[in-house]
Known about the structure:
Elements: E1 8-11, E2 14-16, E3 30-35, E4 39-42, E5 45-47, E6 53-58, E7 61-65, E8 68-72, E9 75-80, E10 83-94, E11 99-102, E12 105-114, E13 119-124, E14 128-137, E15 141-146, E16 150-159, E17 163-168, E18 178-187, E19 191-195, E20 200-203, E21 206-207
Parallel strand pairs: 1-4, 2-5, 3-6, 4-7, 5-8, 6-9, 7-10, 8-10, 9-11, 10-12, 11-13, 12-14, 13-15, 14-16, 15-17, 16-18, 17-19, 18-20
Antiparallel strand pairs: 20-21
Amino acid sequence: ITGAAQQSILNYCVFSNLSNPNNELWEVSGAVNFHESNVTISNSQFKNNRCEDALNIIRSEFTLQNSQFYDTFSDSFDGDFVTGTIKNCQFYNSGNDGVDVSGSQLILENVLIQNPSDKGISAGEASTMSGNNITVENGEIGIVSKDLSSISFTDVTLNNTRLGFSAFQKKPEYGTASITINRISQLNNETNYLIERESSLIIDNIKMPTVSNKVIDQMYGNEYGKSSK
């Protein structure tokens, strides 16, 4: 859907075993795509997609609620320059990230992400995220803020991840990043956090120590996460 004059409404829909629409002139990255088209998605499922993203939303306002993502090839939800809410949603077995946004403003409420191959939640390119009741389990990396992005969550659970939190600068045209967490439970994480100098992680009003001048050298399959090649 692109350039829609009215808001789209999807309710009780199942998108299964889909690839990305394309022809000889153009190609999009998602199995389901909304471009400059506002949308509300409720009580729906996205599963077993055979392309980069299960759901890709670009330059739109959206609401995603009471929905599930299963066994996605790469990112489950990918948002670029969007404003929206993800509420009461679950993401299982993402081939890359569970929720990945750039240049966006998001509110997350009651979100569960299990077994992401890379990051559970990733905010980039001056994104802002806030929310509560966020759980990431059994994945590679829990929550990442990069490139002038800011994350503020309350009631966070991170269990059995290789790396819990990371904040850093990836792209030279941007800057440092921040994460603020109130009330957290962490269990069986290999490393609780990896924070680049000048970026910040504050947990229950206590600033965690920075440990590296260049965190990106340890990310993207070098030590943590999945190779981005």
